[in-house]
Amino acid sequence: MYRLKIESSFDAAHKIEGYKGKCSRLHGHSYKVEVFVAGKKLDKIGLLVDFKDLKDKLNRIIEKLDHNYLNDIKEIGSPSAENISKYIFNKLKFPKNIKLEKVRVWESHKSYAEYFE
Fold first, then answer.
1. What's the structural domain count of the chain?
2. Distance in angstroms (rounded) separating the CA atoms of residues 92 and 104
């Protein structure tokens, strides 16, 4: 089995409605996103999937999040790190031979949430 990981980042603002504390107020994060994929079979040149293709897929999704107010993106729901990771996971599509293992979203250098199925 082979596993690949790519990273990207974006900056965005949000607030968590109903939260009792500072996160209920408008604030922003410099998010880091990690995507993990796995598969058993390499192609004829020895690649599971091209890193460039992985990054392009992720960056198309991140473009919609970058420098945005995440509460306005209704598909995310409440813009917690948990829901952002699920949103990105659900937007990523791969051929059957590539398994999307998980998406990890860091909202600080000490805190992340991840989504997997």
1. 1
2. 13
Q: What is the CATH number of the domain that holds 32?
A: 3.30.479.10
Tens digit of each residue's pLDDT (9 = 90 or more) over 69-110:
999 999 999 999 999 999 999 999 999 999 999 999 999 999
Catalytic position from the list 14, 29, 101, 107 = 107
What tokens does 38 get?
């796995």
Q: Catalytic site residue 23?
A: yes
Per-residue model confidence as pLDDT tens digits over 13-58: 999 999 999 999 999 999 999 999 999 999 999 999 999 999 999 9
Examine the residue annotation and report whether 67 is marked as an active-site residue of this protein: yes
Dist. CA 76–CA 113, nearest whole Å? 14
Domain extent, residue 75, equals 2-116
Give bridge partners of residue 78 from the DSSP assignment.
Answer: none
pTM of the model: 0.95
- Please confirm, yes or no, whether 29 is among the known catalytic residues: no
